[in-house]
Structures are given as structure tokens and as C-alpha cells.
Amino acid sequence: MPRLDSGIIPNPCLEVDADGVGRLTFDDRDRTHNVLTEEVLRSLDVVVAEAAAATDGGALRALLIRSGKAGSFIAGADVRAISAVAESGDRHRAAEAARSGQALFARIAALPVPTVAAIRGVCLGGGTELALACDYRVCDDDDRTRIGLPEVQLGILPAWGGTTRLPRLVGLRAALGLLLTGKPVRVSKARRIGLVHRVLPRRQFEERSLEFARELAAGGRPNRTARTPRGISGRILDGTAPGRALVLRAARKRVLGRTGGRYPAPLKILEVIRGGLGRSVAANLELEAGAAGELIVSPQCGNLLFLFHLREGARKGPWAAGGRAVPVRRMAVIGAGHMGGGIAQVAAYNGIPVRIKDVRHEAVAGGLAHARSIFDGAVKRRRLKPRDARDRMGLISGGLDYAGVGQADLVVEAVVERMDVKKTVLAEVEAVVGSAAVIATNTSSLSVDEMASALARPGRFAGMHFFGPVHRMPLVEIVRGEKTDSDTVETIAALVVRMGKVPVVTRDGPGFLVNRVLGLALNEAGHLLDEGNDGKALDGIWTDFGMPMGPCRLIDEVGMDIARHAGDTLAEAFGERMEPAASLVALGESGRLGRKGGRGFYLYAAGQTKGFDPTVYADMGQPSRRSTPDPARVRDRMVLAMVNEAARILEDGIVNSAADVDLGMVMGTGFPPFRGGLLRYADDRGPKEVLKAIEAFRDSLGPRFRPAPLLTELAKAGETFHGAFPAARGDPGRTAT
């Protein structure tokens, strides 16, 4: 393998063997994954020129592009470089960067010898675009191999040829599935849609991919298995101009229905594809570059990149100074409700054996059935093979006693939200597990420190608050009590990351982070109902702002009994500003339970929402005739109430940074990602403007809108939340797309 004079192997590097096969190998020795940084792209440019020169004399007759890493092809482009262009606000610079990448990949596509991308493991973003520039793509049969173009999730589009080449390769409908969602596909789907030409055995991948390249070098021309649209409808939709126009119109309608038009990237992708129909590749690439310039300077792209860096930083740690994570080989979950079953399922999905324990056979059976239903859903959606689902479900066992719990490295308590019950259960668990085991509570509102008083080893105890449904919600709040040691925090956080979740470390306090902030917004919605506003209209205003559901629907999903309990806990802790609204108190006593009971603000049947129930107002003791609220005022009352409470949370030291607040609210409540997070939104409006609006609400609505001292200080100093409370961890330079 070629080396520089210093002895360092260049990345990438090129070797040509006696059979005329060139191996262009990516292997960044300083990273877990290969990333297309500016330095790597410059090196690739040189290597491609070397390859082109080697074809002139016939020394190079086929080129195999491969990775030196077993679990990764190329993870994408350097997000640090993308962010730098976004922050510059220079759309021309962005377009030129796209043209530069396009030109490099076009030189690969123009090589006069067959080119093969040998994909194993992660192949995303720029890595996929590089593979698309090759004549052939082969991959291994490992279920962990993924191929995708996730750029849309960062508010941009694949601008190194991906938006142009993918539809030409796999057809319009299949391409839109990858481009508009950003979700990577498994090997089975990649082969089915024609994205890869051959799937080779994982254990023989190096040898078999090299054999494939040698076959090409010897003059063979294996069938590229060009994709043919299936059925008459497929040939019409993908193969005719009217059909393609129909597909694009339907896709635009779906995008607008899903995003409300708040995310420009998927709409721009459709625009580029539509504009490129019937045009040359070169013309389509120019549309790509222009679109990249427009998108990368958009506020939505800036906010999505901002969140990407926060999320990656939170997943890397460290999470507690001086702590050391202990590997979790086995888990146990005490309490087999939907939450317990969901936690067990996520653990088993990620290869961790887990034991469920409850006091009733019916509960254990229900927890196992709930876990099995999630695995069945993954199979139905083709995210798991049936055999893999069975194997992972086999990692979950259950029973009525503590048999098997004692071997667990970590135990999660998920029983009923009653302090006396939790203390009893936690003491029982501590008596059967080893002294090094970590015990966690999944409480959403009770004091971790008070629970710790029942334990002989409180240093090995913390909160581990999952959000439901567990398999979908990405956030886990790690609640560090006064006596929780750093090893415990590190162990739980590392496990959270292994389970595919995002950890946010908080201090103990009523509602922790998310429920304390969100609870105030839901209570403000209750005050708006007290004033005679229409509940369905309140939900519409909230979803128009970008939230996934309105406050009334959310209360139904949580359950009115649980919402009432959480509200009482917050009111007891914080007094007047958290005093429950009269309408919510009345509903908590009405017998309506929300979705789980079939009746809340909405009616439910057979798992479906049947519409808003106007008789709910009678149960509030209020008239059914309702006022149409002012959208701007409603939005500000709920959003700025959350901002004000987030300021108090920072004052109280519940979390250490504004980034923790933003991650918690986006990952735990669905606060609109295109706005960058709750405090990013406040910073964009400016603390001075936010303070002025909150003071106006205080004057008209009373002391629950008394401004937090921190907000007042920031406004006077001209400072922002993220400027005053920056994130301390994470290295954005080591991320890719």
C-alpha cells in the first residue's frame, strides 16, 4: 500500500495489481467512520487523476472503491464544513461547494474503465453519492448495512449528484422514498429497487468483491440488473411523462400534509427532480447546485444543523466528570405495564437480555405481549426479518419472583407512581442484586432523592425517565440525585446511547426538565379553556406552530388522571404559578381518562380518533358556546410560559446548558425542530422582546407570568440563553452526513 515519505498511509490511497484491478481504499485512522472532509476530497481528487492516468496505458482496467473499515463504507460529508458554509450566509459559496463535489464525482463516472463501489456497513450522504457515480454497486448481506441520503433531515438536499442520479437509477417512486424521508434502506430493499447489483456474503466480502472487479477487468460485463418498473401501473407511473407528473404531484401533497410546508428541503428536492425531467445530467446537476445554495442559508437548515450538533454531542459524553461507564450485559425491569414492556423491548432490540418482574401473571403476560406487538410491527414494516424478531423477543423473559433479577447489571423500576410502593420495591431490588449493580427509577414526577433514602447504596441509584411510546420517543432523562455517583450516571448514559436514545442529564426536582416545562404550557391551555376559548381551535394553533399535536390531544394521550397527578405535584412544589386551571381540575374529576378510556377532549374507538367531543365543556361546568381565540396571543401565552420556566430551570441548576433544554423539548415533546429548540427560538426572537411580551401578560393575567430573574438579566445584558449557558460537550467536527 502506498505511503508518504513520512510513512503515513494516505487517505484515500490507490493500489493497482497485476490483473489491472485498482483498489481505491478509504481508511481514516483517526475516526470510527470514514468521512468526506475537505482534506479527504482533495486527496480523492489526486487519486482519481492517478487512476485516469493509469487507464491510458492499460495498467488500470477496473477500479474497486472500498473501505478499510469492516463496519463502514463512508458515513458522509463533514457536517462541520456544511455548518461553516451555512453560518457564512453565502449561497454562492454553497453552490460552488456543490459544483466542486459534483465535478469530482463526475470524473469518477467518466473513467473509461468499470468502477465498483464495495459497500459494507454504513453508507450515507456523500458516500452514497460517490457510490451512485460508479458503474456498479455491490454490498454485503449483513443486516447492519445501510444505504441512504439523510441530507433532507438537515434541511438540505443531496447536491453531489444524488438528487440527479438516484431517480435515473432506481426510478422516480423508489428514489423519492429515500430522498424525501432521509431514511436509509436495508440491503434487501436496496437490491429490490436496483440500488445495488449484487449482494455478497459478509464473511467473503473482500474476496468476492475483488473477484467481481477482476471479472470486469478481464472484459466481462455482468448484467447491471437495470430496474424495470413492476406491473402496468409501475411502467406508467415511472416510465411516462404524465405518470411522473402524477407521482410528483402526489408526493408534494404528502410532503405538505406531513410538514405543513415549514421544511423547504423536501419541496426543493421535488422542484429539482421536476425541473430535471427530460434534461441532461449536467443540466440537472446545475439545478442541484443552485438549490443547495438556497437551502443551506435558510433558517430551517441552520436550526436543523444546530440540533444535529447538539444531539451528537449529547450522545458522545462525557456525562459526569470523572465517571466510568460499566458495561450492561443483562437488565431487569420491575413492573410489566406498557412502559415496562416497552423498556424491555428496546433493550432486547439492542441485544440485551432482560427479565420482566411483576406481582400478577396477567401483568407479566401483558408486558410480554406488548413487547411482541412492537417486534411484530417492525416485521410488518420490514424493519426486521421474522427470524431476527423472534431471536430478539427470545431475550425477554418474565416471572413473579426475583429469579433472574439478581444477575442484572442494571434494573429499571417502572411500577405505579406512588412513593411508598416505589420505596418498597427499590429496597427489595437492592437486596437481591450485586453491590455493583445500578438501580434506576422510571418515575416522571416523584423525587429521586426521597426514593434514594430507602437504599443502602444511594450512589448506585438514579432516575432513568423514558417517554412513551418507548420504542418511538428518543429522549431519556437521566436524573442525578444528590448522592448519585458519576459512574452510575456514565453507565446509564452509555446504555441509553446503546439503546439508540438521546440522554439528557438533569438534577432532581419536581417534573425534572421536560414535564416541568411542558406542564406549564398545558396548564396555560387550561386557563385559556377557562376563559371560554374553543379547545379544538387551541389544538389547531399549537399544530400550526409546528407541534405534533395540540394541548388537548396531548392531555388525552397522557391520560387525564396522570396529567392531574403531575399537575398537583408541580402545584405543590411551585405554588401559585403552577396552580391547576379550573377546567383541568374539573376534567380530572369527571371520569374522562383520555384515549385509554375512549373519552377525553376527543372520542376514541378501535384505536382511532373519532373527533372532538363538544360535551366535554359540560364536564368542565362551562357553556358549550366557545370563543375563537387569537392565534398569536395563544401561541405566545403557551410558548413564552415555557421559555420563562426554562429560564427558572437554568437558574435552579436542573440542567447545565440551554442545549439540554432544547434537546429535551425537541426529543421529548416534539417541539418543532425547524425552530431549533425552545431557547433557540427565544434567542432568535431576542430576550428583550420575550421579556416585554411576558411582562405584558403579567400585567393582564397576573403573577403566573412574573418574569424569571434570569430572563430579566439576559435582556438587560443583551445576552442570549445559548451565549450565557453554552453546551460544554461534543465535537461537531467529528460528525458526518
How would you briefly describe this protein structure?
The chain is an alpha/beta fold and 737 residues long.
As laid out across the biggest beta sheet, the strand order is 12-11-10-13-14-15-16-17
Rg on CA atoms, Å: 28 Å
Structural class of the secondary elements? alpha/beta
Helical coverage, percent range: 40-55%
Q: Can you count the beta strands?
A: 19
**N-end to C-end Cα span:** 28 Å
Instruction: Report mean pLDDT, rounded to a whole number.
Output: 93
Please give the oligomerization state of what you see.
Answer: single chain
Shape: globular
Model regions low in confidence, pLDDT < 50 over at least 5 residues = 729-737
Approximate strand percentage:
5-15%
- Alpha plus pi helix count: 31
| Major sheet | 8 strands, mixed
